[in-house]
Write a structure and sequence with these properties.
The protein is of the alpha/beta class. Helices cover about 35% and strands about 15% of the residues. The protein has a single domain, classed as Phosphoenolpyruvate-binding domains (TIM Barrel), CATH 3.20.20.
């Protein structure tokens, strides 16, 4: 399995992503990146509350050129959930075209563009028909019908996260994709709650982060559903019902998807993530691999990745997700939860 890794600008004490990709070159198919000053599915690359990293643009461009020299595919993110009044504008079309032209001069051109906007997809198709246009995971496309509706706009799809553990369903998507000449990708290490009721709201909020940060907002209220939900320990089993794929199970997806995407754009330890998925093994807190990880919400408890039962994947990939009538994840959680301040004896019963 090859991986798509998210680009982040390192601080002075952080490792450059180019070095990380170089060390794991045989496992990395592409690097996906946002452009400075443009909204995307995460925080602005070079600006925080008006403070601009003026070297950021130069460092980004140098890194992209270095990655291109390694033979790594480049995937431009134009995946903001909202572009406001510019969403279908000539202004946005010109902006997209000029950026693609600039990247062409800089690196010879990008290989793919990921977007959550059908309008942007059409703009890229018209301007750069040779570029793969990929539907963002935030579009939540997870059915044959959903793919077919926009097949004229997209060459590939990052499949809706909630289908990650349904191999039979992925096989159906693969069959259609092969027939239509489309590529499939999965996001392997999302920590977001499955079927999150607040996803659309939160994605729109992130798209307008620059405005939100400079507004006097309601004090003491969090816009994220997950943080408040997980304050109640009885809700913790949802973390096991989520959409992440353990590194140990990646090989099961061979032939079902073309590659896996790793969320590392905002992750504090991207090397840890890439190393675990490249090796197919992680010893430690499973939450350390995820974005978001929620390790702080459970502390001092951790989810020990080595304690999962042998039947974990078989059970959770064939259960039909009828969680309201099943207690399997609740029982497994009791086995994998470890208090790092007073670790229990090894050898807990496997269920």
């Amino acid at each position: 399995m090859k991986f798509s890794v998210g680009y982040q600008l390192p601080d002075e004490h952080e490792e450059p992503l180019v070095d990380l990709v170089s060390d794991y070159r045989e496992h990395v198919a592409e690097v996906y990146f946002a452009w400075a000053g443009m909204p995307s599915g995460r925080a602005n690359l070079t600006e925080r509350r008006g403070y601009v990293d003026w070297t950021g643009q130069r460092r980004l461009e140098a890194d992209l050129a270095a990655l291109r020299q390694m033979g790594v595919r480049l995937n431009l993110l134009l995946n903001a959930n909202c572009y406001g009044g510019l969403a279908v504008s000539q202004y946005l079309k010109n902006q997209v075209a000029s950026l693609l032209d600039h990247l062409g001069d800089l690196t010879g051109g990008v290989d793919a563009v990921t977007t959550a906007s059908p309008a942007v997809a059409a703009m890229v198709k018209e301007h750069s028909p040779q570029v793969e246009v990929r539907a963002s995971v935030n579009m939540r496309i997870g059915t044959v019908d959903g793919m077919a509706y926009v097949a004229h706009l997209f060459d590939g799809y990052c499949v809706q996260r909630e289908h990650n553990r349904d191999l039979a369903h992925l096989a159906r998507l693969r069959q259609w994709a092969d027939r239509e000449g489309k590529r499939l990708t999965l996001l392997a290490n999302s920590g977001c709650l499955p079927h999150c009721s607040g996803q659309t709201f939160h994605d729109n909020l992130v798209a307008h982060e620059r405005e939100v940060d400079e507004t006097l907002n309601v004090p003491g209220w969090s816009p994220t559903v997950c943080r408040g939900f997980l304050r109640d320990r009885s809700h913790w089993p949802v973390l096991l019902r989520s959409t992440w794929i353990r590194p140990e199970d990646v090989a099961r997806y061979e032939g079902r998807v073309d590659q896996m995407k790793l969320a590392t754009r905002m992750h504090s330890r991207p090397r840890l993530v890439l190393d675990a998925y490249a090796r197919g093994r992680h010893v430690g807190n499973l939450l350390d691999l995820l974005e978001p990880g929620f390790a702080g919400a459970l502390a001092p408890m951790v989810i020990d990745n080595t304690r999962f039962p042998d039947d974990w994947f078989e059970r959770t990939s064939t259960c039909g997700r009828r969680c309201e009538t099943c207690d399997y994840c609740e029982r497994v959680l009791e086995d994998v939860l470890v208090n790092v301040e007073s670790p229990p004896a090894r050898g807990a019963a496997r269920r």
